[in-house]
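Hi L.,

As promised, ABC transporter ATP-binding protein:
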Amino acid sequence: MRARGLSKHFGSLKAVDDVDLTVPARQIYGFLGPNGSGKSTSIRMLCGLLTPTSGDIEVLGLQIPAQAEVLRQRIGYMTQQFSLFTDLSVRENLEFLSAVQNMPVRNARARIEELLAEFQFEGRADQLAGTMSGGQKQRLALAGAVIHKPELLFLDEPTSAVDPESRRDFWEKLFELADAGTTILVSTHYMDEAERCHRLAILNRGRLVADGSPAELTGKLDGRTLLVETGRQRSARNVLLSQPGVISAAQIGNSLRLLTTEDPVSAEELRGALRAEGIQAEIAPVEPSLEDVFVAVTHRDSDPTPEQRASPREENS
């Protein structure tokens, strides 16, 4: 999948602004960003559900949106909200989706039995979807999205309403799909999920602000993250945030985690600033995290324009 100069405007609002993307085959590619960052709008353009204002999109060798109808037979799509029929059983939902995909009846029956076993629904095939837990509904939605064995799977914040154990199991299933040859594009605002992706794009107010593997992105922050150990975390935080070169100071338990600019301030300078206020502290380098990456790349855009403060309904609909 490849996009160049991808943009979508809603009136004066630039929901997606000149984004370039390349998604390798057979990988899990993540979209990380806060609500309103352009993740959902980008996904809808890439799968042909929304026409871009400008830009070129090629997905599975097809030109989008011109060949969107052909593409829909080759992709799966799952939203953050459960979108199947709550008054139908697990099997009936899968039968309906197989019909939507124009699958031959004999093939559909065999595929449904396969999915019931693969997604652990053997004893729940006749259970109404509306009576299932959040994690079970999520598994059913994923089973429905892959019933026709799509080459490419779009997942729009699919784990936003489930417990941590269900999220973990869901991601194990995604890796199984990727290993079997499915390319997956998944949007999330969870840092732990972003770390699981083979490659990651970070969006902020419609702009692509970082793109690379988690290791590549965190590697760019080497030397810019520090851990501060002190018994006066809140006072120390106020002092440190006033120092030139300090972008953020987040309290993590009994410690403070600092992120500095590309021209980082030294640990000795920071200790001196704290001593001047009567605060003793130990300061040492710490390995960067994706959260540090996110703060660093969005810090450049910390002052939105009035148009950017607006939020299109399309982004979270």
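The first strand starts at residue 2 and ends at 10.

Thanks again for sending the construct details.

K.
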